Amino acid sequence: MAMFTPIVIVDGQINGTVSPLDRGFAYGDGLFETMRFQAGQLPLWEQHKKRLLYGCRRLQIPLAEAVLSAHRDALGAVAAQRRIDSGVVKVVVTRGEGGRGYATPQVLEPTVVAGLYPGPGYPADYRRVGVRVRICEQRLSSNTTLAGLKHLNRLENVLARREWSDSDTVEGLMLDRDDYVIEATASNVFMVDSKTLLTPALHRCGVAGIARQIIIEILAARAGLAVRETNLSVQAFERAEEVFLCNSVNGIWPVAALVDKHYARGAVTAELQRCFDLYLQECMACH
Amino acid sequence: MAMFTPIVIVDGQINGTVSPLDRGFAYGDGLFETMRFQAGQLPLWEQHKKRLLYGCRRLQIPLAEAVLSAHRDALGAVAAQRRIDSGVVKVVVTRGEGGRGYATPQVLEPTVVAGLYPGPGYPADYRRVGVRVRICEQRLSSNTTLAGLKHLNRLENVLARREWSDSDTVEGLMLDRDDYVIEATASNVFMVDSKTLLTPALHRCGVAGIARQIIIEILAARAGLAVRETNLSVQAFERAEEVFLCNSVNGIWPVAALVDKHYARGAVTAELQRCFDLYLQECMACH
Fold first, then answer.
1. Is B26 on the interface with A (CB under 8 A)?
2. Which three-class secondary structure string do you get for chain A?
């Protein structure tokens, strides 16, 4: 894994900084995307861009697509110049600088921050053998207006992630206040039940991840699986044949242990990993 | 009302800026206070400081009290130098700069931003005659870990405040998903029922404001009133004799109209306004 100093472009300026009056800083009034950068490309750029623009519409943040693309290009140019060809790109968009109160100024200029960071460098075994997952105490609150969005109000995820510090535990499942599993702190979660994939419905809370969406809309059919988004309890996950996590940066990780329940790495998860890799290759070839 | 360019001190630096890697910007991982600055003083500084330090303990942000006081002193010095003696002071504290993910770095250096802004300059009639209040569509989500705190995850308040733009409407009541009134977008709310003040219980959501706390702990008794924190519906507010809003900057505002229900300005609200002013005078005299 290549290490380098993060490169952050703020409103077009390399190594720029953020105004303390920015509404992202003041209220978490914005959205973000985290995506993989590999072989000098952002294979899932189109998907992330689409979700970000959708989120901006839902929060009524007037982001121009051209501004977003300009930041991607600028970041790509710096990466090429510094001969960096892999890592993680994070894009943050906020409603921009505002006054002191909640009311939105009449004229808005969204803030765009595009950063390139070294990859997380997780052990290859996370993907091959699987990861240990805990159940977080911290619950996710329900809000249909915000559900599914990758917005900047992420204190619940931060507090959940602070519940453990041992390196044996890799992720933590988060429940809503009705005891349904929603997601992990930074991943979505699926279970395998015969030829069906089950994953939590996210209309009340949770982030509708890009990897999750690709699995639901494209990869499940390729692997001959049905998909159902529904309410799922911890007990349902304990009874499942296979459980896996996914996100756009790490791809698919089998869950090897959920608290005291252990799973063998299953054939369905392995097949989906293969499909996900192929899909990334297809996206790269199209660029 | 005096107008001036805001003065913002970031980690001790006048007109400093914020790192795009700050966890306040990335996740809303922090807290804030908004307080009145009058006659060159912050009359409620002790109360705000206490709440901020309490919030930091709850979110496990290791803020040193001396750092906070140093920022207050620095802001006071600049204000004196520029002959500014009234306005609004906002203090933001975040967990500091972090990596890209939710996990907290081992070494944390909280970020402190202290800003002095012109006062909002609301018409004197808001206080004398009262304000018109609406009911917001946007609900507050429930989370006992975060309830009461003035944290930086404020998208719900932002979206609620975006529901109206007419200047006749001054505030909006926000409900939880069980249809109980919790607060207004930037104020707490009380109703008067004979010799008792009723205000929403805030153990599931809402911000436990400083003005609210002063009314509950000190002013109610001085005005010969009992206080009860409980679950209150919109209908209960509609049936009330008097309704008022409060916050630390604006003090107490009678509610003149809640949607179609009109209230005469009541004697209890007027007495509490008088008590609040006296209390501010006492705080100023003690400094």
1. yes
2. CCCCCCEEEECCEECCCECCCEHHHHHCCEEEEEEEEECCECCCHHHHHHHHHHHHHHHCCCCCHHHHHHHHHHHHHHHHHCCCCCEEEEEEEECCECCCCCCCCCCCCCEEEEEEECCCCCCHHHHHCCEEEEECCCCECCCCCCCECCECCCHHHHHHHCCCCCCCEEEEEEEECCCEEEEECCEEEEEEECCEEEEECCCCCCECCHHHHHHHHHHHHHCCCEEEEECCEHHHHHHCCEEEEEECCCEEEEEEEECCEECCCCHHHHHHHHHHHHHHHHHHHHC
